């Protein structure tokens, strides 16, 4: 068994930050371009890849900072990281469906079923409203369990 101290002195690692070590050991984070997302996300129950709410959602996800992407992933899957192989290796596949709301979808929050990697997304009136409600759900919904 090899020990890191047999290859180099462990003290040399102190020049790196935690984030730099993570990058060196874990590699780049997955690509979150719209095309990558389209290739590995399933749309169902009222949504297709060309539905306006889906286009807005994919643009929002693509624009997210790494911290928001991690929080989004945690919200939808229950895990802060994708498995090796990225979105293509996520099982079950990330599925986004239309959440049927009452009279005002803008007041509703997205909900998830983390065991199935399933996002229920209301048809918001604008991309800005969707981003606002999504960020709220992501930040306030961590660690919560509700039936939806």
Automatic annotation (TrEMBL):
All copies of domain HECT, residue ranges: 6-148
GO biological process: proteasome-mediated ubiquitin-dependent protein catabolic process; protein polyubiquitination
Family matches, as InterPro entries: HECT_dom (IPR000569), Hect_E3_ubiquitin_ligase (IPR035983), HECTD1/TRIP12-like (IPR045322)
Gene3D superfamilies, alphabetized: Hect, E3 ligase catalytic domain
GO MF annotation terms: ubiquitin protein ligase activity
Coiled coil stretches, renumbered: none
Similarity section: Belongs to the UPL family. K-HECT subfamily.
Protein name per the record: HECT-type E3 ubiquitin transferase
Annotated source species: Rubroshorea leprosula
């Amino acid at each position: 068994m090899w020990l890191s101290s047999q290859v180099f002195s462990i003290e040399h690692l102190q020049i790196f930050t935690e984030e730099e070590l993570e990058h060196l050991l874990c590699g780049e984070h997955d690509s979150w371009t719209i095309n990558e997302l389209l290739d590995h996300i399933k749309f169902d129950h009222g949504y297709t890849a060309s539905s306006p709410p889906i286009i807005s959602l994919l643009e929002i996800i693509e624009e997210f900072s790494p911290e928001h992407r991690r929080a989004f992933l945690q919200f939808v899957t229950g895990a802060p990281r994708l498995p090796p192989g990225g979105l293509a290796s996520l099982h079950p596949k990330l599925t986004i469906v239309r959440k049927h709301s009452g009279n005002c979808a803008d007041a509703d929050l997205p909900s998830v079923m983390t065991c199935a990697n399933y996002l229920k997304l209301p048809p918001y009136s604008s991309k800005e409203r969707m981003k606002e409600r999504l960020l709220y759900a992501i930040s306030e919904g961590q660690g919560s369990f509700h039936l939806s």
